[in-house]
UniProtKB/TrEMBL annotation:
Residues 1-111 form the Thioredoxin domain. InterPro entries: Thioredoxin (IPR005746), Thioredoxin-like_sf (IPR036249), Thioredoxin_CS (IPR017937), Thioredoxin_domain (IPR013766). This is Thioredoxin. It comes from Solimonas marina. One of its GO terms (molecular function) is protein-disulfide reductase activity. The record marks 29 as: Deprotonates C-terminal active site Cys. SUPFAM superfamilies: Thioredoxin-like. One of its GO terms (biological process) is cell redox homeostasis. It comes from the Bacteria. The record marks 36-37 as: Contributes to redox potential value. Keywords: Disulfide bond, Electron transport, Redox-active center, Transport. Belongs to the thioredoxin family. The keyword Electron transport applies.
Amino acid sequence: MSERITAVSDGSFEQDVRNASGEQPVLVDFWAEWCGPCRMVAPVLEQLAADHDGRLKIVKLNVDENPQTPAALGIRGIPTLMLFKDGELAATQVGAVAKSQLAAFVAPYLATA
């Protein structure tokens, strides 16, 4: 992980994502170590985190180590990116995407500053 992107777990998901306070939406990256497309998305997420520092919270959940949350959310493939706004699921993106596509995906949910 990095200083801008943190790891969450089945145990911390409610607190870190569903109960996240403030205007910041939370983008959750569901990934696994063995997943090639997941590794392709990682640097794009780092760039997005830098571009939207303070306006978007990005977290990662390893599906192999934390199977309960992905199952509860109906995740069938990875990488899956889910954006939560005010604790509610607002949007879902499945598969590896370019930075421009990911920026367009989160743009409608960012707080204007």
